Structure formats: structure tokens, C-alpha cells
Give the backbone structure.
Amino acid sequence: MTAIRQEDVIQSVADALQYISYYHPKDYITNLAAAYEREESRAAKDAMAQILINSRMCAEGHRPICQDTGIVTVFCKIGMGVRWEAKLSLTEMINEGVRRAYLDPENKLRASIVADPAGKRINTKDNTPAVIHMELIPGDELEITVAAKGGGSENKSKFIMMNPNDNLVDWVLATVPLMGAGWCPPGMLGIGIGGTAEKAMVMAKEALMDPIDIQELRVRGARSGLEELRLELYEKVNALGIGAQGLGGLTTVLDVKIKDFPTHAASKPVAMIPNCAATRHAHFVLDGSGPAEMHVPKLSDWPIISWSAGATARRVNLATVTAAEIATWKPGETLLLNGAMLTGRDAAHKRIQEILSRGEALPSGVDFKGRFIYYVGPVDPVRDEVVGPAGPTTATRMDKFTEMMLAQTGLLGMIGKAERGPVAIEAIKKHRAVYLMAVGGAAYLVSKAIRKSRVIAFEDLGMEAIYEFEVEDMPVTVAVDSNGESVHKTGPAEWQQRIGKIPVKTVS
């Protein structure tokens, strides 16, 4: 009978979470690099280049791939012959491992978890608790899979209770475009079919833990109905032309993974969960011999890719930029930002709204007039860093605040990740403002453009405080121009037409 020690569980979970914060799975890098080589869209290819360069930098520097270091999900398969040498429950051991990982002073990870989710939403400060799934199985070992799932991709999870004869492919093809690009494609789609509503969702999440093997499957051919479905969805989802970061291109998904389970004769539960460009998961087994050893990958596993903004990139001085100048910026144009910008996310926007609604002045130093706001919640710095990884968060969450910010604060423009919705686009057009897009999944790379950082308001909000960043040649793309034209509409439409493989049906 195997004896599993408490400290081995705690340290193994902590080590695994640190490991996945800065090492992409090798299968993801291999398949993304191959997609990069195949890509014909310049914008999508540039985005993939930045993701690959960022990944190598993180592997070398042991810093997070993405500033959103995720909500921790753990799958445990517990051998029925296991004996425990522990005073804590398994749930408590796992959460202590999470706490140890996220507070590691050498690579502190961002605490993103809030308690009282329907009320005060107070940050737990150490990213606990994890979401844990347990299963008893024959044997005398403990198998654990840990994953760190970012909010941008988790928020795009979808579920439908279909009728037994409804077409699943039609639903997926109608639903994926509605997910926008906030899940940071290219990534994976996990699909769960059957069981009950909650079983389908868990299967979809667990499917994302499987290795990427769609190219091997394409070569050997399908051997089951589920493999046929995977191949069909892989081809047709990519034919939507959404592309990397939603900019339009050949590759939207690197794989589609599916798990199924018997269900009620009257039911067809279907769950779909995307995994983003910061795919993070690891599997290990404890057999009583000590903590798990994580295999350190070779840097040769990463491709050597160089990227530059190009000779046509326009340098922008944020201290002197005017409304007349931004009116000349074209959708899809690359800019290099220089100077000072303010930051702000959901909680900061909500607090600004409350202050303005009371007729009060914003805190000292918070002056948006003629300035840009960057939607970001950075990781705390370590060693000699000015700021930790600081990639953009999903901009659509700020859509409902856009009219207020543009009308009442004098804000000139916004920087974030992925597309803007119709409400925000209408406000941008009305106020002749602009929305710029930075690449999601390249947080460490982006942080190297930040030369100074300081908190200027709402320090109690932690990573959601308002910072002032001084940036040098921070690369962004004009995503919505002052006329309201969005590259997230024009790009995918162009590439879907170029690919030209499928008619897309609308499913209610």
C-alpha cells in the first residue's frame, strides 16, 4: 500500500503551477510554430510571432506567459489503495500548494481570485481556492493534472441543451464567431457531449488537458465517430477565418478535443470551452517516493523567430498626440507608443463611474483628458523589473463604460485585447476616439516596453488599481479607427471569403 505524504502533494502542486506559468506544453509550441509557417495573413502571422517570442522569453526568464495567471483547476485520480501520511485533507493540501506557488517571491504570480462573487468581490490575495475534481480509481497512486485557466478564455465557455436530433456542428459554427477573440486564438476547443449539464462542462474542461494531435489524426484518418467529428470541426472552425487574435487568418484552432458520456434519451447536453494562447497544464503521478519531478524542456524546442513592427510602423508621442492625429490612423496599422498612459480594468471603471455619478472629482493624478487608458492588471515585479508581465485584458468587459469615459473624462483612446462590441464602437465613432489592440498571450514581451510604473489611485484594488506606465515603442494595432471601422469585423470576413470552404448557417 502506497503512503502519500502531505508535503509531497503540496510541493508537487506548487512546482507544477510554477512550471506551467512559464513553460508552454511542447505540443502547443510545435503546432503553433507549424501554424505560423503556414499562415498567409500578415496580421495573424505577426500576432503568432509575438506569442512564440514571448513564450521563449518566459521559458528563459521563468516569468509568466500571461499576466492572467489563471484560476487553478485540478483533476485528481486517487488510487483506492493509497494510504495518507497527512493531517490536512486533499483539498487543503492542494490549496496550500496553490498558495505556495502564487506567493513564490522568485516568480510571484498574479492573485486573481475574488470571494463573495455576487457581492463585494474581495481578492483572496493568494489565488485560492482551486476548483478541484476528484475520482477514485483502482491502484495505489495519486494522479494529478493541474491547469491555470485565464478569465479571457474561461468567460467564453458555452453550454446548450440540444434536442437529440439537433446538429452539433451547426451550433459550433454559429457559436464560435460569437465568442469573439477574447479567448486569444489560436488555441483549442474542448467539447463535452452527454451526461448532464455539469458533466458536459467538466468533460469539456478535461478534454483541454489532452495533447494536441490533430495533424497526426489528419494523416492516419478517423477510426471512430468522435474522431470524424473532431476532423470536421477542426476544418470548419478554421474556415471561419477568425485567425490569430481575431485579426483574420488560416488558423483559429490548433485542435478540437471531444469527450462524451451516455445521456438521457431526451437530452443532448453540449459544452464548449476554449483554451487560449497561454495554454497551461501539467500532469504528474505520486507513488510515495517523493514529490513529482517536472521535466525541464530544452530551449531548442522553441523556434527562433524574429519580429519587428516594420518600416511602416508609426511612432506616436503620447504626450503630444491629438484628436486630429488619431483621425489619420488606419485600421490594421501598426503603431509604436511612447510616453505615459494610465491603466484601468473592471473594478477601476466601476469606481470611476460611482465617483462621477456623485459629482465628485477623480483622485489626484487621475486625469484622462487627451490620454490613453490601457486595460491591464499586471503581475507584481520581481528582482529588477519595473513591472511584471503586463499583457492586455479583454476589452469588451469595458464596453459599458466606454461612453462615460469618452464623454466625461476627455479620454482620447483605449488599448486592450480583442474586439469591441457595437455599444463601444458607436461611442468611439461618436467621439472620434480610437481603440488599439495589443497581442494577448505576449505579456512578458509587452512588459519589456514599460520603462516606469507607479500606482496612482485605488491601491486597495491590487492588480486592478490605476497605474501610470511610461512606455517605449510599445507595439499596438489600430483595431477600431475614429470612423468606427473594426479590423475584427473586416479581417475575419475577408479571410472566410478567401478560404471559401463552408456556408455558415445561423442557429438560434
About this structure: The chain has a mean pLDDT of 96. The first strand starts at residue 3 and ends at 5.
